[in-house]
Amino acid sequence: RRFRDVVIHFSMFAVYIAAMSPLGFRISTLVYVAASSCLLDPPRSPKAWVRVAVLAVLAAFLTFFVFERYLAVLLPRGRWTSF
Q1: What is the pLDDT along the chain (83 residues), one digit of tens a residue?
Q2: How far, in Å, are 32, 50, 51 from residue 17 at the CA level?
Protein backbone atom coordinates (compact mmCIF):
# COMPACT_ATOMS: atom_id res chain seq x y z
CA ARG A 1 0.00 0.00 0.00
CA ARG A 2 2.78 2.45 0.87
CA PHE A 3 4.55 1.84 -2.44
CA ARG A 4 1.28 2.49 -4.29
CA ASP A 5 0.84 5.81 -2.46
CA VAL A 6 4.37 6.89 -3.37
CA VAL A 7 3.75 6.10 -7.04
CA ILE A 8 0.44 8.01 -6.93
CA HIS A 9 2.13 11.06 -5.33
CA PHE A 10 4.89 11.12 -7.93
CA SER A 11 2.29 10.78 -10.68
CA MET A 12 0.25 13.62 -9.20
CA PHE A 13 3.38 15.76 -9.02
CA ALA A 14 4.10 15.08 -12.70
CA VAL A 15 0.55 16.13 -13.60
CA TYR A 16 0.97 19.23 -11.41
CA ILE A 17 4.10 20.27 -13.28
CA ALA A 18 2.44 19.64 -16.65
CA ALA A 19 -0.66 21.60 -15.59
CA MET A 20 1.30 24.72 -14.70
CA SER A 21 1.71 25.81 -18.29
CA PRO A 22 -1.97 25.78 -19.29
CA LEU A 23 -3.49 26.58 -15.86
CA GLY A 24 -0.86 28.68 -14.13
CA PHE A 25 0.79 28.39 -10.75
CA ARG A 26 -2.12 29.36 -8.53
CA ILE A 27 -4.78 27.07 -9.95
CA SER A 28 -2.50 24.06 -10.43
CA THR A 29 -1.05 24.47 -6.93
CA LEU A 30 -4.50 24.74 -5.40
CA VAL A 31 -5.62 21.51 -7.09
CA TYR A 32 -2.36 19.69 -6.28
CA VAL A 33 -2.41 20.61 -2.59
CA ALA A 34 -6.07 19.62 -2.27
CA ALA A 35 -5.51 16.29 -4.03
CA SER A 36 -2.37 15.50 -2.01
CA SER A 37 -4.13 16.36 1.22
CA CYS A 38 -7.04 14.08 0.32
CA LEU A 39 -4.67 11.26 -0.53
CA LEU A 40 -2.68 11.58 2.71
CA ASP A 41 -5.72 11.88 4.98
CA PRO A 42 -9.05 11.30 3.21
CA PRO A 43 -11.68 13.73 4.52
CA ARG A 44 -14.60 11.95 6.16
CA SER A 45 -16.75 14.88 7.28
CA PRO A 46 -17.83 18.26 5.94
CA LYS A 47 -15.48 19.93 8.43
CA ALA A 48 -12.56 17.94 7.01
CA TRP A 49 -13.49 19.01 3.46
CA VAL A 50 -13.51 22.64 4.58
CA ARG A 51 -10.07 22.12 6.12
CA VAL A 52 -8.77 20.71 2.81
CA ALA A 53 -10.22 23.65 0.88
CA VAL A 54 -8.79 26.24 3.27
CA LEU A 55 -5.37 24.58 3.26
CA ALA A 56 -5.30 24.45 -0.54
CA VAL A 57 -6.34 28.08 -0.98
CA LEU A 58 -3.90 29.34 1.65
CA ALA A 59 -0.99 27.29 0.30
CA ALA A 60 -1.57 28.38 -3.29
CA PHE A 61 -2.09 32.07 -2.67
CA LEU A 62 0.41 32.56 0.15
CA THR A 63 3.23 30.90 -1.78
CA PHE A 64 2.30 32.96 -4.85
CA PHE A 65 2.25 36.15 -2.79
CA VAL A 66 5.61 35.49 -1.11
CA PHE A 67 7.41 34.47 -4.29
CA GLU A 68 5.93 37.16 -6.55
CA ARG A 69 5.87 40.11 -4.17
CA TYR A 70 8.75 39.61 -1.75
CA LEU A 71 11.21 37.42 -3.63
CA ALA A 72 10.45 38.84 -7.10
CA VAL A 73 10.29 35.37 -8.66
CA LEU A 74 8.02 35.20 -11.68
CA LEU A 75 5.73 32.20 -11.45
CA PRO A 76 3.97 30.71 -14.49
CA ARG A 77 0.75 32.29 -15.65
CA GLY A 78 -1.66 29.98 -17.40
CA ARG A 79 -2.06 30.08 -21.16
CA TRP A 80 -5.74 29.24 -20.76
CA THR A 81 -6.43 31.42 -17.73
CA SER A 82 -3.80 34.23 -17.70
CA PHE A 83 -4.07 33.85 -13.92
Answers
A1: 779 989 999 999 999 999 999 999 999 999 999 999 999 999 999 999 999 999 999 999 999 999 998 999 988 888 888 77
A2: 10, 25, 24
DSSP string, 1-67: -HHHHHHHHHHHHHHHHHHHHHHBHHHHHHHHHHHHHHHHS---SHHHHHHHHHHHHHHHHHHHHII
Between the CA of residue 61 and those of 2, 11, 13, 26, what are the distances in Å? Answer: 30, 23, 18, 6
